[in-house]
UniProtKB/TrEMBL annotation:
<feature type="transmembrane region" description="Helical">
    <location>
        <begin position="74"/>
        <end position="93"/>
    </location>
</feature>
<keyword id="KW-0472">Membrane</keyword>
<protein>
    <submittedName>
        <fullName>ABC transporter permease</fullName>
    </submittedName>
</protein>
<dbReference type="Pfam" id="PF00528">
    <property type="entry name" value="BPD_transp_1"/>
</dbReference>
<dbReference type="GO" id="GO:0031460">
    <property type="term" value="P:glycine betaine transport"/>
</dbReference>
<dbReference type="InterPro" id="IPR000515">
    <property type="entry name" value="MetI-like"/>
</dbReference>
<feature type="domain" description="ABC transmembrane type-1">
    <location>
        <begin position="8"/>
        <end position="187"/>
    </location>
</feature>
<dbReference type="InterPro" id="IPR051204">
    <property type="entry name" value="ABC_transp_perm/SBD"/>
</dbReference>
<feature type="transmembrane region" description="Helical">
    <location>
        <begin position="12"/>
        <end position="34"/>
    </location>
</feature>
<keyword id="KW-1133">Transmembrane helix</keyword>
<dbReference type="GO" id="GO:0005886">
    <property type="term" value="C:plasma membrane"/>
</dbReference>
<feature type="transmembrane region" description="Helical">
    <location>
        <begin position="46"/>
        <end position="68"/>
    </location>
</feature>
<keyword id="KW-0813">Transport</keyword>
<dbReference type="InterPro" id="IPR035906">
    <property type="entry name" value="MetI-like_sf"/>
</dbReference>
<comment type="similarity">
    <text>Belongs to the binding-protein-dependent transport system permease family.</text>
</comment>
<feature type="transmembrane region" description="Helical">
    <location>
        <begin position="138"/>
        <end position="162"/>
    </location>
</feature>
<dbReference type="GO" id="GO:0055085">
    <property type="term" value="P:transmembrane transport"/>
</dbReference>
Amino acid sequence: MEIFLGAVKVHLILSSVAVAIGISICVPLGIFLAKTEKASLIIMNVVNIGRIIPSLAVLALLMPFVGIGFYPSLIALTLLVCPPILINTVIAVKEVDKNIVEAAYGMGMDKARVIRKVELPLALPVIITGIKTASVEVIASATLAAFIGGGGLGVFIINGIAGANASMLLVGAIPVALLALSAEFILGGIEKLTTPPTT
């Protein structure tokens, strides 16, 4: 039981810290890119290309440079959460009604206040959709961290497959599925709360 709880703890830390780092980097970067067309086009194309690389391939590609263990796994998972958060943030800020933004400037707001008080609240539901997508993906992908010694519930899954032990496999797989469903449910609820009511 202690080993199982330890694996759940490591899995949650890997997933939640990767998402937190992804948010802290990609939301400000997405707001910046939404306002700089040329840089946005280049970086978004690079990010979209990066999205097609499978999660296991990302871990394998990073392993020669960052080694194995918890922190290399965290770096790889952070790279995996960035594309959906960044892409949704750029799209969300670009889709904010320009008339509302101009009205805010007309009321005397400076650029930072317009972003904080107008653009970010209006863009928030779409940004949270990106965070939700990233969270569900990273909870599933964190199982692959076990391949490079990162720990987590993937250890049970890998050992279960290697030993043809269905019980051990389910000990890892079922909690991962429940964690992913929980993230989907909680962030889906936050997304609804932040979505303005339609008239």
